[in-house]
Amino acid sequence: MDFIGAARPSIADPFLPNKIMNDQLEDIRECIGCNICYASDGLAVPIRCTQNPTMGEEWRRNWHPEILPQRKTTLNQEDSTVLIVGAGPAGLEAAHAAGKRGYTVMLAEASSAPGGRVTKESALPGLREWSRVRDYRIQQLTKMANVEMFMESEMTVENILEVDADHVMIATGANWRRDGFGRGTEAVIPNLGPEECLFTPDDIMEEKFPTGAIMIYDDDGYYMGSVMAEKLIQLGLTVSYVTPEAKVSSWSGYTAEQPRVQRRLMDLGVNIITSRSLSGFDGHRAELQCHYGSGSHFLECESLLLVTARTPRDRLYYDLQTYLETRSSDRSIKMRSLSKIGDCDSPSIIADAVFAGHRWARELDETVDFDNPAKYDRMFSCLN
Ligand code: SF4
Prior knowledge:
The protein is an alpha/beta fold. It has two domains: 71-173 and 313-363, Rossmann fold (3-Layer(aba) Sandwich), CATH 3.40.50; 177-310, 3-Layer(bba) Sandwich (FAD/NAD(P)-binding domain). Helix content is 28%, strand content 17%. The strands form four sheets. A five-stranded parallel beta sheet has the order 3-2-1-4-15, with helices on both faces. The chain has a five-stranded parallel beta sheet with strand order 6-13-7-8-9. Helix 10 links the parallel strand 8 and strand 9. Helix 4 (89-100) packs parallel to helix 6, helix 4 (89-100) packs parallel to helix 12 (350-363) and helix 9 (224-234) runs parallel beside helix 10 (258-268). The protein binds iron/sulfur cluster (SF4). Iron/sulfur cluster binds next to helix 1 and helix 3.
């Protein structure tokens, strides 16, 4: 019996059968296997999909997975132009959706390659499919005559004003924190140093590698801590993985991956220490506090990789906002909207960045009722 599994592929692209039938293979939005759809189910929140931002919003927001309403035009808006700064998942999806709506879109990216975090993360162990988030959108953008992409184009306030676009959207991503602030600690950890012994996932993805014994402190709790452990083991380092949680990558329980992730690190020989919080590091040893009150513990290590939280890379947005506020009466500036989205606005999972990009483009020049943006179900209580 031939059995075709098409649950997640149909969530990522509900028009998959039609596209196969019509030989539109390059238009298929391929599932990346992240299981965020499954996690939404487990969390009892509206379903989300990393690849398909309309998933779960077909009725609530009236979003069709393939068809977007054309932009509204008025006499003085016939050439409505959009400048998007940053070609990560949020920027790419915003360019894709705004292009489909008929805007003239310019997408500027500081680096030489599009994709932002999905390009960097897809080079890490087990995350190769992340690149499909980039590849689908690039494939679509190259077919749009009204969308232009500019690589190696780092933008300044002056450059943006020179472009003179009607709408400017900043999607410049986020950086991993180096100060220990994380989900569990919720505070900067004092006594972390020396600087040359501290690393973040950004360093590893930029191939700045530590040497010797390293401790990974995972106060993020999703996939990055365990992926970093595998990457550093591959590089031949002695790796300890420490987390305040009771399990490795505990949030991965929602995506049904946690047991496999923990088993993988055990098989790789990672020294796993759970239920301990980091309270200090001096370049030779880390001080850990037991979550259940059994006091301080010490771990010998030469470097520390902090996987805790990320801060938005939003300087450009605020510089531009400040400039515009001081020039509010300048009629020569035609910019009608300035926004920031994705990790640059609120660091989160890739699905949220894609959703934010799509939503921004859908709501451009539209009237949105922010008090009641989504329809909702009224549930009968069995107590009434
Ligand atoms: S959320 Fe991830 S696993 Fe689920 S359908 Fe979308 S891309 Fe596939």
